[in-house]
Amino acid sequence: MAILIDETKCNGCGLCDHNCPGDIIHMDAVSGKPLVVYPDECWYCGACRIDCPENCIKIIFPLISL
Amino acid sequence: MSFNLANIPEHHITTDVLVIGGGSAGTMAALAARRQGLEVALVDKAGIDRSGCGCAGNDHFLAILESGPEWDTKEAFLKWYHRLTQGLVDMAIPEKVFLSRIKRMVAYLEELGIPMRLDATHNDYIRTGSFGQPGDYFINFDGRKLKPTVSAEAARAGVKFFRRINITDLLADGGRVTGAVGFDIRKGDFYTFLARATIVATGNVTRLYNNQASMPYNSWHSPYNNGGAQAMAFRAGAELKNMEFVNYTLTPVNFSASALNAIVGMGGYIVNGLGERFLFKYHEKGEKGPRWVMPWGVYWEIKEGRGPCYFDLRHLPEEAINHLLHHLLPVDKNTFLDYCEQKGVDLRKDLLEVQISEGQLPAFLGSVSGIYVTPECATTVSGLFATGACSVTVGSLSGSMCVGETAGEEAAKFIYRDKTVKPEVPKEELTARREAIYSPLKRQGGFKHCELENKLRQVMTLYVGIGRTRRGMLTALEELAKLEKLFPDVRADNLHELMRVHELRDMLLVAQLIARGALEREESRFGLSHYRGDFPTSREEWHCSLHQCLQGEQVVLKRVAPSNL
Ligand SMILES: Cc1cc2nc3c(=O)[nH]c(=O)nc-3n(C[C@H](O)[C@H](O)[C@H](O)COP(=O)(O)OP(=O)(O)OC[C@H]3O[C@@H](n4cnc5c(N)ncnc54)[C@H](O)[C@@H]3O)c2cc1C
Ligand code: SF4
Ligand code: SF4
């Protein structure tokens, strides 16, 4: 899962997609909302969350890394 | 996939300076070259505003401020740096690329509004020391806005940004590097950059070794730095240096995050399963010793049955633990406290178990491995400069920014010295490069990139990881050669995967350079970094650097005498 986006709060600005250093998040052309396309390649860096204007991204660590 | 292979749009950009990699070093390099009045293209496979190891912020800014004490002088720094790198970094470099610039760099960041003075009461710096430093070299600062701020400065100065372009190869004309090619990882377009000077700055090399959680992207430094600069420079004929020294650190268990500097800098302890502080057995400075001492000590404690090992912060005074929890840890790794919370660890009361991280080619202070450069950041190939963590200079964040600035200025000087040069590239070379870039998209069947990448990590971890022997290295080279043979069968099903395939190509080359260097260097040095069980001590005859370069198809190795102060 890696990161969880609260779609009810998300305004579709695309900053998380722009900021992710690993091309993990892609804005969905249809819904206009971010999709976590490559969760297995997430670095857990938090760059997507840091500038999110709606503060709607949560970092979820998988069990194996806890 | 919407993108049509038969009709790939092409973009041809001609510029004065091309900077490949828009992280801490590359962005400064671009800005510095632009300040010299040149056209600059800054290219990154990510978005630049927040890419690279500093994407979500760093918290320690190494600086010599000449504030009074003996340790805060250039002389003391040089002595320490020479000791730390054991003479394997050219000692003419730190003065030129770092010491002469660092005070101005700190002032510049303050002008940009980066919070450098965390001591609000006295409007002063808070500084801490670690890793064997003779004093408190690290300014503790809030670097969360550093990367976007400096990127905005570069954009304002007129640097042209090319985002999401994965660069795959340098271009050369008559022995001189004249630019690079790459592709847009979202649209697929083909890009050619022709430049009078090219600077590579793609950082360190990760994803080469397994970690405990078996999550290759859960790495200490950015998992999206894969040796692009080192591999491209090597293929173009540049010399690489001391590639055998792979580095380890201590991280929280199963979470390869930076934290060690903050923790030992604030006086945290490292204890074993018996509750003992044990590092003094391995180094007289204990937790204040060089970084390599800590994974080295933990390795032996666990091996001898005294594991697991832990960070212990319970003794820290309230002020120190508050500083760690509020200013350092959540900046050092933005998600650190999320991890603690989800794991159920309260650092005021609980021990935090540690692990030895996966190995990586270094990116920090005291790095002796990477692209060999002169104090002017020039590689051994004309027209090609290297800067930041991929080069052997002064690592770390502040080091990378200062070295970046140096590379930008020196590339400009190089251009102004010879104004007549027009960068060119034969048409056939471009056609061949283009063909090679996209060929994984045309394959059916074959392997996925992760299949080869997993095998690569297995081989590196088994034979070229912690504890090495001649036989292991020969096995690794054989296995890596097999993977090299399989590489032309690797397919990509979309553009994102195409980027990963090109990363794999560079990692495969770097892995072979590491194994070859490690086979050659018959001694041990820097703890786990290069521990040859068949030559377990450091040896006088190996007190030197080992350079590797390509001549034709042949890899040539040479020993270079250590540098004296
Ligand atoms: C979490 C963390 C905390 C840290 N904290 C500190 C600290 O407090 N103090 C300190 O001194 N150091 C710290 N460091 C280290 C410091 O961040 C690095 O030393 C520094 O950022 C290196 O700069 P660089 O420009 O060489 O590489 P990076 O900043 O990593 O930039 C490399 C860039 O190259 C791009 N790239 C890679 N391959 C390609 C390609 N093929 N084509 C195009 N672009 C490419 C990447 O996308 C990236 O943007 C930390 C590192 C991490 C990961
Ligand atoms: S940054 Fe936040 S608000 Fe903007 S698209 Fe991403 S999740 Fe939505
Ligand atoms: S945590 Fe980092 S790597 Fe993961 S999605 Fe967010 S920005 Fe991308």
Automatic annotation (TrEMBL), chain A:
Iron found in the keyword field: yes
A GO MF term: 4 iron, 4 sulfur cluster binding
4Fe-4S ferredoxin-type domain location: 1-30, 33-62
Keywords (A to Z) from UniProt: 4Fe-4S, Iron, Iron-sulfur, Metal-binding
Transmembrane annotation, as ranges: none
InterPro entries: 4Fe4S_Fe-S-bd (IPR017896), 4Fe4S_Fe_S_CS (IPR017900), Fe-S_Ferredoxin (IPR050572)
A Pfam family it matches: Fer4_10
Matches recorded under PANTHER family: ADENYLYLSULFATE REDUCTASE, BETA SUBUNIT, FERREDOXIN III
Protein name: 4Fe-4S binding domain protein
Naturally occurring in which organism (per UniProt): Neomoorella glycerini
From TrEMBL, chain B:
Annotated ranges, domain FAD-dependent oxidoreductase 2 FAD-binding: 16-392
Biological-process GO terms, alphabetical: anaerobic respiration
InterPro entries the UniProt entry points to: FAD-dep_OxRdtase_2_FAD-bd, FAD/NAD-bd_sf, Fum_R/Succ_DH_flav-like_C_sf, Fum_Rdtase/Succ_DH_flav-like_C, SdhA/FrdA/AprA, Succ_DH/fumarate_Rdtase_cat_sf
Single GO cellular component term: plasma membrane
Keyword match Oxidoreductase: yes
Protein name (record): FAD binding domain protein
A Pfam match: Succ_DH_flav_C
Molecular function via GO: electron transfer activity; flavin adenine dinucleotide binding; steroid dehydrogenase activity, acting on the CH-CH group of donors; succinate dehydrogenase activity
Presence of keyword Flavoprotein: yes
All residue ranges annotated as the Fumarate reductase/succinate dehydrogenase flavoprotein-like C-terminal domain in the record: 454-545
Residues at the catalytic site: 291 (proton acceptor)
Keywords noted in UniProt: Flavoprotein, Oxidoreductase
Superkingdom of origin organism: Bacteria
